[in-house]
Here is the input.
Amino acid sequence: MCLDIRPTEICALLSDHYGEPLTELQRCPLALTTPQTLIYDVLAAIQSCLSAAAARGLKVGACAVACHGQVDAVNGVSMVMPQAPWHAPVHLKYLLEQKLQLRVEVDNDCVMRALA
Here is the structure.
């Protein structure tokens, strides 16, 4: 599963292990009001992908999250999101892994696009 957290939306899709898309790109609105709403919106986008996977009989093995702003990729922490009204780090990797029981990788959006 691939997610791209942008300032106003989350783009999500399922891909195979070669990066080939298995589903259409889903665009989910994002309200950057609090870290909690960020997590809620990310989880909603992920649940939508998981539902699409289940409908196609696919199993999701991991989640890659591209996040705009400064990211501590080693720990999976969004350090600073320039458009967000808060200035505290958000521990995306930890929070998402706890909720989803999936391996989650988080990095800056430019780095993730370069890897893709």
About this structure: The mean pLDDT is 91.
